[in-house]
């Protein structure tokens, strides 16, 4: 069972600040047992507003984020609703509402009391309007960092005057190379590495060629044990040459007509009634073919093992590179061995301005690939998973 989202927010704060569960429960205003039940059984009922307000205050997250997590945990918001983008006008109205709310925020100036201590001036008439432009710039920087960079967030219409103005404001605030952008990020960073896709995108890697070569070699040995047959009547010379190179027997003319269904049934019935024993040579061929099938399985196991080991190295390198960015949000790096390479996202480029993608790409480029291992994939499979029992290279 996945941890409830509300508990994830609380645990993220607890792990970052080293606060005990008992102390955290006290600050929030719930019992330690109640907090433990949230973690083990999930958040079955929506906590009262006072508790959610206390959670937001203690962990330093917006109330709306805490409420959203609680609504999701209690079923008021579903995965489909959370994943579906809201309509443009709805989001726009929320943005206008937040910016309008910010325009009404004030700062209370400090004054010196009769005791000589400094305190906030309680007179509401002394309130000063906040620097709303700085607020908007901070918000834009946070959104750009969450989106992946200034160019990424302005990609909808990069040549517009609006994009030019917003881009200039952001670059003035965080630098043209975005060096100060990433500290504004508020969303966790999630990186999924697909080793197979990374190897496919790596022009310098020949690991896929090793995979294909292993299968071709196994097929060549199978053909040497029990050659296939191809008839020449409708084949072009190049096809026949390829067949000959693979050890396939080429017979002139057209193939004989296939047996009828009745003839096949009669042959099978006769064989079932009186099985023909294999000759010593036929049994040797069966044993050799079975050994080759075992070797094919070992190659598949070795492929998976090499991808997993490569994925472990990639994960360590990417985590180290992203940690060096000192991002203010949690970073999760996972390795995906199950998604086919052609369905996985492309590997990030080192030429991107996105610091997260660039760090990921640099780490990937510096990680040794499986094709740097000694020998061929077929040889490594034979060594790692038992002796090669398919040395019937006729």
Automatic annotation (TrEMBL):
Residues 9-66 form the HTH cro/C1-type domain. Pfam families: HTH_3. CDD domains: HTH_XRE. It comes from Mycolicibacterium vanbaalenii (Mycobacterium vanbaalenii). It comes from the Bacteria. This is HTH cro/C1-type domain-containing protein. InterPro entries: Cro/C1-type_HTH, Lambda_DNA-bd_dom_sf. One of its GO terms (molecular function) is DNA binding.
């Amino acid at each position: 069972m996945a941890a409830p989202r509300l508990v994830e927010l609380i645990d993220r704060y607890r792990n970052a600040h080293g606060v005990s569960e008992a102390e955290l429960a006290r600050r929030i205003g719930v019992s330690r047992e109640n907090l433990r039940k949230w973690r083990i059984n999930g958040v079955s009922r929506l906590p009262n507003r006072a508790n959610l307000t206390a959670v937001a205050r203690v962990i330093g997250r917006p109330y709306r984020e805490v409420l959203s997590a609680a609504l999701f945990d209690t079923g008021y918001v579903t995965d489909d609703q959370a994943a579906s983008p809201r309509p443009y006008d709805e989001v726009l109205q929320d943005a206008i509402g937040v910016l309008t709310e910010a325009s009404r925020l004030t700062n209370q100036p400090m004054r010196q009391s009769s005791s000589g201590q400094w305190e906030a001036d309680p007179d509401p008439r002394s309130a000063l309007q906040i620097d709303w432009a700085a607020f908007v710039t901070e918000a834009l920087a946070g959104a750009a960092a969450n989106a992946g960079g200034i160019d990424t967030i302005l990609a909808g219409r990069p040549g517009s005057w609006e994009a030019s103005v917003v881009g200039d404001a952001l670059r003035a605030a965080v630098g043209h190379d975005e060096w100060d952008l990433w500290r504004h990020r508020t969303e966790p960073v999630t990186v999924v590495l697909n080793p197979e896709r990374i190897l496919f995108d790596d022009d310098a890697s020949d690991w896929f060629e090793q995979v294909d070569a292993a299968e071709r070699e196994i097929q060549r040995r199978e053909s040497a044990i029990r050659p296939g047959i191809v008839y020449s009547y409708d084949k072009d010379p190049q096809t026949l040459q390829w067949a000959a190179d693979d050890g396939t027997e080429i017979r002139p003319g057209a193939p004989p007509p296939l047996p009828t269904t009745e003839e096949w049934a009669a042959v099978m019935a006769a064989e079932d009634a009186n099985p023909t024993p294999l000759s010593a040579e036929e049994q040797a061929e069966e044993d050799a073919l079975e050994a080759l099938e075992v070797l094919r399985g070992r190659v598949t196991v070795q492929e998976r093992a090499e991808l997993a080991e490569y994925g472990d190295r990639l994960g360590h390198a990417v985590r180290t590179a992203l940690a060096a960015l000192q991002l203010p949000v949690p970073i999760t790096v996972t390795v995906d061995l199950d998604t086919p390479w052609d369905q996985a996202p492309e590997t990030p480029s080192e030429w991107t301005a996105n610091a997260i993608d660039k760090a990921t790409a640099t780490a990937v480029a510096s990680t040794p690939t499986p094709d740097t291992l000694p020998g061929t994939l077929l040889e490594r499979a034979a060594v790692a998973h038992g002796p090669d029992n398919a040395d019937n290279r006729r």
